Amino acid sequence: MHKYDGDKAKSLLLRSHPAGTMDDPYHNNVSQQVTEGGEYTYTQDGGGQDGYPYQADYPAQDEDARSDATEGADEDEQMYEGEYQGVPHPDEIKEARRAARMEARRKARQAAQQEDEEENLPEQYETIMEDCGHGRFQWMLFFVLGLALMADGVDGFVVGFVLPSAEKDMCISNSDKGLLGLLVYVAMMVGALVWGGLSDKMGRRKCLIYVLTIDLIFSFLSCFAQSYGFFLFFRFCSGFGIGGSIPIVYTYYTEFLQMDKRGEHLSWLCMFWMLGGLYASFTAWGIIPHYGWGFAIGSELQIHSWRLFILVCLFPALAALVGVVFMPESPRFLLESARHDEAWMILRRVHDTNWKAKGEPERVFTVSITTTTELKIVAFVVLPYLTHLSLLQVMANIMSLSAPEFRLQGLFLVIVWFCLAFSYHGLGVWFPDMIKYMQYEEYESKVKVFHRERVERFHFNFSLVNQIHREGEYIHDKFAEIEIKSVKFEDSLFENCYFEDVRSTNTFFENCTIKNTVFYNTDLWQEKFKDCRMENTTFLHPKKGCHLNFQEENDIVIYMVSFLGSLAVLPGNIISALFMDKIGRIRIIGGSMLASSACTFLLLLSFSQGAVICWQCLFYGTSVAAWNGLEVISVELYPSSKRGTAFGILNGICKLAAILASSIFAAFIGITKIVPIFLAFIALVCGGLVALKLPETREKILS
Hints:
Layout: E1 3-4, H1 6-16, E2 30-34, E3 40-44, H2 90-132, H3 136-169, H4 174-202, H5 204-222, H6 228-242, H7 245-254, H8 259-287, E4 295-297, E5 301-303, H9 305-312, H10 315-325, H11 331-336, H12 340-357, H13 383-387, H14 391-400, H15 407-445, E6 448-451, E7 454-456, E8 459-460, E9 464-470, E10 473-475, E11 478-480, E12 483-490, E13 493-495, E14 498-500, E15 503-505, E16 508-510, E17 513-515, E18 518-520, E19 529-530, E20 533-535, E21 538-540, H16 550-553, H17 556-567, H18 569-583, H19 585-602, H20 609-637, H21 643-667, H22 674-691
Parallel strand pairs: 6-9, 7-10, 8-11, 9-12, 10-13, 11-14, 12-15, 12-16, 13-17, 14-18, 16-19, 17-20, 18-21
Antiparallel strand pairs: 1-3, 2-3, 4-5
Helix pairs in contact: 2-12, 3-4, 3-7, 3-8, 3-9, 3-10, 4-5, 4-6, 4-7, 4-21, 5-6, 5-7, 5-10, 7-21, 8-17, 8-18, 8-20, 14-15, 14-21, 15-20, 15-21, 15-22, 17-20, 18-19, 18-20, 19-20, 19-22, 20-21
Keywords: Cytoplasmic vesicle, Glycoprotein, Membrane, Neurotransmitter transport, Phosphoprotein, Synapse, Transmembrane, Transmembrane helix, Transport
Domain Major facilitator superfamily (MFS) profile: 141-698
Transmembrane segments: 139-166, 178-195, 207-227, 233-253, 265-288, 308-327, 377-399, 411-431, 556-580, 586-605, 646-668, 674-692
């Protein structure tokens, strides 16, 4: 094989082969190859020299020979003849290779620099927050976000308080009544999943404004909904909005706190959820039983006191929305989004606000931020959470948010959240239902039974309460301006009787005969008469539909139970706030859950309403510390770009556990109390033991 150097080889070919001769059959199977360094090799696969390198039989030429076209031109200005056929110049090839190597080295240096800067960002941010201090700005944000958390607490009690009145006002059946509570929790679960993830893409402040606005609009509309369908839809939309408040609030506030302040002040923030329960219980107690506080707009729109209660419950959300509008976005989120100038201005505002309040306005904010030019936020996809809400898929999502070494801890965290929510919300439903059942049993034990009585030409001008009348006869009797509550007439005869302005509650006529009787302006309609025979009976101006009786449907004991249960968490909140940074999150969570499991056994000794209320307060007081610790560790364990998404998924798991527990625990009311207590005990023990395996984040810098 013979090799020809660059220009010489090409010049020889151009001189030896006129145009088209390279493809001539006489010179077939000739191939040209460019080797490294820009050299050319010519070979012939067949004919000629039997496979040997092709050699042209041309006379030897002088090394300095030149073509006519280039003769007399300078060597430096000579045109590279390979350009005619698109063959790159050897110098160009070398230059391209050199540029590629330089670009690769530059990218490697940039990647290493970016990795170093990403590792240093948490430490830099922690240093900046320490320089800004903890003062007036954090306290202002504390109260604003506390009101948002309070709004979530209020919404958790609204449905339970208005349901006894709403079911009478809108004729809600028992099955539909259960659907309302279920859909509200489902809406909160979906809201936590969606808004938690969106807060990592759109920002904490913006999403919190959207959440509060949605809650305010649809809660306000639910006050005026006259049909159950619209009321259900508005409460669902309201729950979807307020359901995202908890993930956003804790994520938002955490990113304005330095490491040694996080545990304590996040625990103090949890107290606002308790204040929401107190506010809802107190206002319900003072407003709902007063029927006269309602008003009417026209003949169709009736605004009763339970609707006014919903309006009053909007005040915390409205105040929070106004406050959040004047608060800045989280600077940590802005840094993660490569919006460095905005983050700088907000950090300077925090610094100046705190130090001016401390009497040191001369302190200058001089901390510099060194970050990469662009930090990408992990994308959040809403549809997978909306279309696949199974527990296994949600657990897979939360574990995938963790680094590989923390995936086991992510699974542990899911288990602890589920166990605590299952027991807490399950017993939260069981306590008031158990009290109602005890009241019902006590009421039933006092029922009066009248057998084969005959009453003729008598005027009933007094209320009939908790009575059973069997095989009675009522001839020429008058029932006027009275209330009949929990009364049952069985196999009785009413002849020539007159009913006027009668209000009834839980009153029925079964297998009775009614002759020549008039019902005028009463609420005794067809559903009240079961298998009855009517002969010449007249109904004039009947009160069709459902009607409220606030004195009977709203027992103040239920309001008192909720009020005391909310107040009972105050000692647990104070203790957890004071010791969260001293003994650590893990001991707080594990100790509180195991102590709460011991309290559940005391429920076996509850044989009266007073005992149930007492053990309820004890359980709430011991379990609240676990909630505080769990919320603190959840925001500390995950990086800033995934913190809202992770907390939203965990809070969604909490709502899922609440739905399951509410259905299971309520099914055993009046049957046995051993099963609910045993389930709560097992869940708390398992969750408490698993919590001890979680990593301690007390001295962890936010990643």
